[in-house]
Sequence to fold (326 residues):
Amino acid sequence: MTETPRPDPADPEAAIAAAAKRCSNWGRWGADDVLGTLNFLDEVKRLAGAACVRRGVSFSLAQSFDANGPQMGWRRRTNPVHTMLDTGVDAERGTQGFPHGIGGADDVVFMPLQASTQWDGLGHIFDHGTAWNGRRAGDVVTSEGDQVTGIETAASPIVGRGVLLDVGRAIGHDGELPDGFAITTAHLDATIAAQGQTAQVGRGDLVLVRTGRLARARREGWGDYAGGDSPGLSFTTAEWLHDREIAAIATDTWGFEVRPNEFDNAFQPLHQVCIPHIGLFLGEMWDLDALAADCAADGVWEFLLTAAPLPVTGAVGAPVNPIAVK
Fold:
C-alpha cells in the first residue's frame, strides 16, 4: 500500500492530474456505470455487514435537520426551514373541512440538500469539465439536474459493513484533532492498528472517519464549522482510498478533506480526484460521537451500516439518516 507523493504546494494542477491518472477507475465497470465504488459493495459484503450485528443496539449518525443547524450562509446554504401547513389548532377549531371530527397536521421543509448530514453524489464535482467515468459535465448535469448519476441511483446499494476509524481518539488530544490537521495514510493505518482486527478496512467497506470536529462545535458553537477551517483527509490519501477499494467514506466535518487545503491556491483538490476519477461517494457532517463512545467501550469498531440517501431525482447530493447497528 503506497501513499500519494506529497505534492508541491505551489502546483495543485500537476498534483491533481497525477493523482487522477494513478487513481482513475474510468471504464472499470463499463462505459454506462453510474455507481462508481458502490460496485464494490455486493451481496457478500452486505451479508458480512449483517454478521456484525451482535447486540442489537443502533445509533443514528445524523445531525438534526432544523433551524439550529450548522449553516451560516456559505455557498448560499441555509439551515432547513420547517413550516406547518395544518396544525392541532386548525383541527380543534374545525377549520380543516374534514368530516366526522377527524383532523390532522401537515408540514413542509425547505432546505439545501447538503445543509446537514448528507452524501455527495457522483455529479457533485467535476475535473476540468469532466464528470465521473469520463463524461462531459454538461451532458451529466443540466438545469434539470443530474440526468445520469442522480443520487437516486444510490438509493438501494448503501447497506453493508461499516468501519469507524476514530482518528481523533487515536491520534488527537482529548479525542479531537485541531483545525488544519491533515490526516495521512500513516494516521489511518496507526488508527487501524490501535483499534485492532475489527477496524481492518478492505474492499466494499463503508468507512467512517471521526476527527472530533463536531464535538468541538457542540461545545464551542457552530462558528465556521460549515465552510471554515477543519481537520480532514490529506490529499496524500488519494491512493490509499483508491487501493483499499472501499465503497464510500464519510466524516464528521463539513468538507471531508483538510481545510485549509494543502496547496497555496486550491479548493477541495481531494474531492476533484475522489468523485470524478475514483467514483467515490463522500459523506459529510455525520454525527459519529455516540457510536465512537460505544466502539471504544466494547472494543468493536465494525457494524452494519445502512445509509440510503433520500432519492431526490436528479440531485447531486442528498440528506441521509445513517443507522449503525452493533
Q: What stands out?
A: DSSP finds ten helices and 15 strands in the chain. The chain has a mean pLDDT of 96. The first strand starts at residue 58 and ends at 60.
